[in-house]
């Protein structure tokens, strides 16, 4: 059984409890996944790494992250966090995408039910956080998508391909926040330390 990224998906292999297999791929697995994301000479991390600007510096750094057509957001978020050694934070964003995979956690089954959205959609809202799980960056991201007919879909974000842009603001803290497996759900939940 492989470890899956509970968040976002942006996106990490260890033994895991029941229900874990239904989560998004681990960052390591996502980084080695087939490259529908670009030329064979480029790694998925390079291809999905967003353009970035540091908006503010200090104990908490705030970054503007801009993704472009064809980039995968969860892979790109993970690549950015690794490149900058980020250990905690939160993010928000908007944009538009060509497809996504969102999920709903079924408490009875202790697993995510995944729903592919295979049409152009507006990212009405994207919000999430970053923490460490097994000393690796780990994103938990939720999204609300606006469809052509005016309806909306939302849930836990596993994957999302940009078209034409997704614009995020990520505020990163220098103090690590960690996750640990919750015995009741099998999910890696935040474990604040004082």
Amount of beta strand = over 45%
- Which class in CATH terms? Alpha Beta
> Whole-number radius of gyration?
16 Å
Q: Distance between termini?
A: 33 Å
Parts with pLDDT < 50 across at least 5 consecutive residues: 1-42
Please, what is the average pLDDT?
A: 83
How many structural domains in the coordinates?
1
Report what the structure shows.
It is a single chain. The protein is mainly beta and 194 residues long. It has one domain (4-190): 2-Layer Sandwich (60s Ribosomal Protein L30, Chain: A), CATH 3.30.1330. It has three helices and eleven strands. Strand 8 and strand 9 form a beta hairpin.
Question: Keyphrases for this structure?
Answer:
60s Ribosomal Protein L30, Chain: A; single chain; 3 helices; two-stranded antiparallel sheet; mainly beta; 11 strands; 11% helix; seven-stranded antiparallel beta sheet; 194 residues
Summary of the model, kept short:
With 194 residues, the chain is mainly beta. The chain contains three helices and eleven strands; from the N terminus they run ββααββαβββββββ.
